[in-house]
Amino acid sequence: MPTAASPTTDVATLKEIARKARINSIKMITAAGSGHPGGSLSATDLMTTLLFREMRHDPKNPRWEDRDRFVLSKGHCIPAWYCLLADAGYFPESELMNLRRLGSPLQGHPDCTVLDSIEACTGSLGQGLSIAIGIALAARVAKRDYRVYCMVGDGEIQEGQVWEALLSAAKFKLDNLVVILDNNKGQIDGPVAEVMPLEPILDKIRAFNWHVIDINGHDYDQILSALDEARTVQGRPVFIRADTIKGKGVSFMEGGIDWHGKAPKKEEMEKAIAELEAA
Amino acid sequence: MAKASRLAFGEALAEVGETNPRVVVFDADLSKSTMSMLFAKKFPDRFFEMGIQEANMIGAGAGMALSGMIPFVCSFACFITGRYDTIRMSVAYSKAGVRIVGTHAGIGIGEDGNSQMGLEDVGLMRGLPNMIVLQPADELETKQMVRFLANGHDGPAYLRLTRQTLPDVSPEGYRFELGKGMVLREGKDVTCFASGGTVANALVAANRLAEQGIDARVVNLSSIKPIDVDLIVRCARETGRIFTVEDHNVIGGMGSAVCEVLSEHCPTKARRWGLLDKFGESGTPEGLYEKYELDAEGIARRLAEFVKETPR
């Protein structure tokens, strides 16, 4: 079967792809004049590993029935995924600069009705995991062996529907489902720990009967071994808590809440790109 | 034969499950009430008991639909349409072909009272782009709608069903068609558009009014969205007075939809009857229909009053 993801993509190459995705994310958000750089940068290493190493997919056949699926439940971080999709060949890189423009398939939040490499419309937080569960259950009904990856944010899992979904995925023993928590610790109104504390997250998820893996979301060896471990788990869904840094890769954005949903100005963009290129 | 639309629904669901292997069903701890259990017994591998989690159920239904399945997600009308943002984003906006089934619509459910009564659901659902809204009037129509939703339609849909028994009203050989209303009784003085549990009562009411010299046309408007614009305009031109009756809040429901058509295409004196911007309460179904004047006597009284107050 054709697949873009190649098990031979080495870590050095993954890092280069991620560097480019970060640079393009900054460029496109700056061009759009609005967007969410903080979470896009925190999720980039995780997303890069998924698309370029882990997932079975085919850019020439985006709706291939046996493809692995990625549901970005934290839909506002879609710029990073758009950059990676373009890099993988789903659409021309020139399209990236049309982010959020009238008529562009690159909507401000993911829209599966206008872009066939997107699996679900998300952006209203807390809904993507339920959709991922439906996709995982459909694999069971249709007797297909695809896997489903769903990325959630830590602020996002304050939503009640997420906990409904966590309960049900365990009930249905969805071992074809992997949730990745981009644990960047910030949300619009402030630090997650202040706005609505989640800790101890891992204890909570374990108590919901998930297989839990705890990693550094910027360490490729840890990401890869977590995804490998996830494939060996049977009879339970897998929850990877990936500790990340909001704005990762740009010094003046790192860890800052202010960059959750603010576009850089041109000078800021240039400074950010210079840093990313030098790193 | 008379049957609750939820029972006809359960039977039809089990039937379409037989012929279409892509049909899957979700319920939220109410399968014995929504009658989706009739499908569950027959096809346990394609039935998903979601527990008391309507929002998650709707989202999982969307995931199924986006994966090529034909999901019916079932609960009481008030609970399921109450998860509005999930329906808006995961279903309607995504164009995910989730067939949302809301049973126990209206005050017709009786004793359980307001918390279990779907009284605003039509207004909520018809305000969503890509969503169609259907409410059958009897067993025959219910079964035809289920077959249509399983095999003849691909997209988001809301099917509104009753708890109470519905007498047969559809003529022999009736074929449900999306966007079409059905004239059940001809008349020249007024047209009464009814849906669901009020259709049979409207027919009885029209027969009583005939004795008083009022000739009322009765239309089953089961396709609430899309709505039969041509039929509504024709009835307005031919009878000059439009009356609507539904077991739903008059704000946002079928009557509102009819009045929207009239205002734009053929301004005509109209009266909406139903719950007058009120919540429901406990009581017997018959007692409630009497109090809120949705039984044949009540509808006849309100129709006659409207005709008398409204010169042509």
Explain how this protein is built.
The complex is a heterodimer of chains A (279) and B (312). Chain A is an alpha/beta fold and 279 residues long. Chain A has a single domain (11-278), classed as Rossmann fold, CATH 3.40.50.970. Chain A is 41% helix and 12% strand. Chain A contains 9 helices and 7 strands, in the order ααβααβαβββααβαβα. Chain A has helices spanning 11-32, 37-54, 78-88, 128-142, 160-171, 192-195, 201-207, 220-232, 266-278, and strands at residues 69-72, 148-153, 177-183, 186-187, 190-191, 211-216, 238-243. Chain A has a 5-stranded parallel β-sheet, with helices on both faces. In chain A, strands 4-5 form a two-stranded antiparallel sheet. In chain A, helix 2 packs parallel to helix 3 (78-88). The longest helix of chain A is centred in the first third of the chain and has 22 residues, at 11-32. Chain A is globular, with a radius of gyration of 17 Å. Chain A starts with 10 loop residues before the first helix and ends with a helix. In chain B, helix 1 packs parallel to helix 8 and helix 4 runs parallel beside helix 6. Chain B folds into 2 domains: 3-166, Thiamin diphosphate (ThDP)-binding fold, Pyr/PP domains (Rossmann fold), CATH 3.40.50.970; 182-306, Rossmann fold. In chain B, strand 10, helix 9 (199-211) and strand 11 form a beta-alpha-beta unit. Chain B has a 7-stranded mixed β-sheet, with helices on both faces. Chain B has a 5-stranded mixed β-sheet with strand order 9-11-10-13-14, with helices on both faces. Chain B has a two-stranded antiparallel ribbon with strand order 1-8. Chain B has helices at 5-19, 31-34, 37-42, 54-66, 77-81, 84-93, 121-126, 139-152, 199-211, 229-239, 254-265, 285-291, 296-309, and strands spanning 2-4, 23-27, 47-49, 70-76, 99-103, 132-134, 157-160, 165-167, 182-185, 190-194, 216-220, 223-225, 241-249, 269-275. Chain B has 13 helices and 14 strands. The model of chain B has no long low-confidence stretch (mean pLDDT 97). Chain B is α/β, with parallel strands linked by helices and 312 residues long.
